[in-house]
Design a protein that fits this description.
Elements lengths: L1 E10 L2 E7 L4 E5 L6 H13 L18 E10 L2 E10 L2 E6 L2 E3 L2 H4 L5 E4 L11 H15 L1 H25 L6 H40 L6 E6 L10 H14 L1 H7 L10 E6 L2 E2 H4 L2 H23 L4 E5 L7 H11 L5 E5 L14 E6 L2 E6 L1
Parallel strand pairs: 3-13, 3-14, 8-12, 12-13
Antiparallel strand pairs: 1-2, 1-4, 4-5, 5-6, 6-7, 9-10, 10-11, 14-15
Helix pairs in contact: 3-4, 4-5, 4-7, 5-6, 5-9
Length: about 375
């Protein structure tokens, strides 16, 4: 899978920009706050329909404009697929081959991307919300059904929490409706949990192998899914649904008192263990960064295994955050097999470390000054 071109209109600081990519490694070079990350972000938004930097779509639209447009062409083997995304105050419109898509799950997965930014180094040490978002974004690309189930789960969860609040405030008294919402929550939540446990198991397989390489076989990495619903590893979706429903029923009085749903995928987390020690609590900064790097690189092979094609890798100024050995390992892992887009303020991190010749775009105040082969 490769992105052969991208066109932006009224996106961030770009009134209009068209770029064609001919090489496996593309570098956007320039000082900070010039617009390098905006280009990288636009590729991510084209793939995922949302930004990793903001939840407000209006921020993506250039000042004094109503809409922003991103188009690009995905190349797979001998086929080419045009993708189009329109962003406005009214929401998002997506097109595949010029045909509008009604469901997000029909669009996401056409262009698979892995983003590695400096904040991803805090994946291990950061908040549980960050790790849940990581799971949802990555699984959603390789499993469109997961995305549908997740959206349904979040919708029912919102309704259920609102109704619990109404019950607590005595504005409602009908517990039968609560039963209906509880059954629906367990149904979609069970599917989400099943997909997450399956993904985490495969992620651990690939990440452990990479972690051992980076640590010169001195460290073993384990990844544990920490669920608020106590299901056993390998449990079926139906079994998880049953347990989830059982736990929700058992905790009904507590939920009515707190007017909130405190069990389910929206409260779960990941834990990482290096040589059986919790790296989030006891690991050094070096171990935490190696763990984060192993996880991000593991996604490349995991996506290839699940979809049959390598994803596109986006490296947003991450090289400066890694020491020489981790830089080298990152570059060796991606070299020759993954189309990579990299932003940097200097070429020192990649010069003489890669055998592939990069295509370099110079970015200055929102202008691309030219490309050098």
């Amino acid at each position: 899978m490769k992105l052969s071109n991208i066109h932006l209109k009224n996106y961030r600081n770009y009134e209009e920009l068209s770029l064609t990519f001919s090489k496996n490694l593309t570098i956007f070079l320039g000082e900070n706050a010039q617009g390098k990350t905006n280009i990288l972000e636009s590729i991510y938004v084209l793939a995922m329909t949302r930004s990793h930097r903001t939840n407000t779509e209006q921020e993506l639209i250039q000042w004094n404009h109503e809409q922003a447009y991103i188009t690009g062409t995905v190349q797979r083997h001998l086929s080419q697929t045009p993708l189009e995304l329109t962003l406005s105050k009214k929401g998002r419109k997506t097109k595949i081959n010029h045909i509008e898509q009604k469901r997000l799950s029909s669009y996401v997965g056409q262009l698979n991307v892995i983003l590695f930014a400096p904040e991803d180094l805090s994946l291990v040490k950061g908040s549980p919300q960050l790790r849940r978002k990581f799971l949802d974004m990555e699984i959603g690309q390789i499993n469109p059904i997961y995305l549908f189930d997740l959206v349904q789960y979040q919708s029912v969860l919102k309704q259920r929490n609102q109704y619990l609040k109404q019950l607590a405030e005595k504005k409602q008294t009908d517990l039968i409706y609560l039963d209906i919402l509880t059954e629906q929550l367990a149904e979609f939540g069970g599917k989400v949990l099943f997909a997450r446990q399956k993904f985490v198991k495969r992620l651990e397989h690939w990440a452990n192998a990479l972690h051992q390489q980076i640590s010169h076989q001195k460290e073993q990495l384990q990844i544990s899914y920490v669920a608020t619903v106590p299901f056993e590893e390998g449990a079926s979706a139906e079994a998880i649904q049953g347990l989830f429903l059982q736990e929700l029923t058992r905790n009904r009085k507590k939920e009515l008192f707190k007017a909130s749903t405190f069990l389910g995928p929206h409260r779960d987390d990941l834990q990482f263990f290096v040589n059986e020690q919790n790296v989030q609590t006891y690991g050094s900064q070096g171990q935490q960064r190696t763990t984060a790097l192993s996880i991000k690189l593991a996604e490349i092979d995991l996506m290839k295994e699940e979809t049959g094609e390598y994803p596109i890798l986006l490296l947003d100024d991450v090289m400066s955050e890694l020491d020489d050995s981790r830089q080298l390992h990152l570059l060796e892992t991606i070299e020759g097999k993954v189309q990579t887009f990299l932003t940097t303020t200097t070429l020192d991190h990649v010069k003489n470390k890669m055998t592939v010749e990069p295509e370099i775009f110079y970015v200055h105040q929102g202008e691309i000054e030219g490309a050098e082969d």
